[in-house]
Amino acid sequence: MTGAAQPAPDPPAAGGPAPGAEFVQSLDRGLAVIRAFDAEHTELTLSEVARITGLTRASVRRFLHTLVELGYMRSNGRHFSLRPKILELGYAYLSSLGLPEVAMPHLEHLVERTHESSSVSVLDGDEVVYVARVPTKRIMRIAISVGTRFPAFATSMGRVLLAGQPDGWLDGYLGSADLHRFTRHTIVDAEQLRLELVRIQRQGWAMVDQELEEGLRSLAAPIRDERHRVVAAINVSAHAGRGSPEAMRAEFLEPLLATAKLIEEDLRAAGAGR
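Request: output the structure for the sequence above.
Response:
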C-alpha cells in the first residue's frame, strides 16, 4: 500500500555551492530568498521569489512568512519587502572587520580635499564589495552604497585587489572569470588583463577609464595589513569630463596614496590595541 504522494523536493538554490556532508540546504534556500531582493526588486510576490530562486512556492511561502515573523521582512498580503533589521545580518561582519569605522574619517577628509566621491571595498570571490563610502554627487547611473557589488575586473579597486592576490589564485581567476564588456573600453581579454594587473602591482595603484560605465573614471590604491597583504582598496571616482586621465592622476594620486597609508596605520594600531 502506497502513501500519499509527496511534493517534489526543491532543486538547489540558484548559485548555491555544491552540497557537502555538512551542508545545510534549508539555510542555503533561505538565504537565496533574501538575495532575491535587490535595488531593482524591492518588492516581490511569492510567485516572483519562487521564479527568481527556482524554489517551490510552498518552500518560498514558509521562508517568507518566517522572515516576516522574525522582523526581517514585511508583507502587505501580496507583496514582500525587506525591513531595516536585515542589515543586522551584515553588520556583524562589518563590525568585526573594523575597516569601515577606521576608514570613514579618512574618506571624509579625502572627499573634502578632492570634492569627489571616495569608497573602500574588499574582495569577495570575483567581486568587490563596498564596505565604506562617502559620496559627493551621483556620477553613475547605478546607485552605489555600502554592500554594492561590482565585478572586480572592470573596477579600479577590483584590479588593485586582484593584483594583490597570490599567483596561483590569480591564474585560476583569469582562467574562469567572465570578462564581459560593459563599455567599448572594457578589457575583456584575460592576457591583457594579466598584463594590466602586473603593471598595477609594480606601480602600486590603478586607474580605470570608462570601463564600468561611460563617463566614469576611477583611481584606486591598496590598503595593506601588518603583513603587507592587500586586504582592501580605496578609490576616488570622477566624471571623465573633469579632465584627462593624466590630470586626474596629477590631482588625486598623492592624496589617495596618503589616505591609504593613514588607514593602514590606524588599522594596525586598532589591531595592536585589540
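The radius of gyration is 21 Å.
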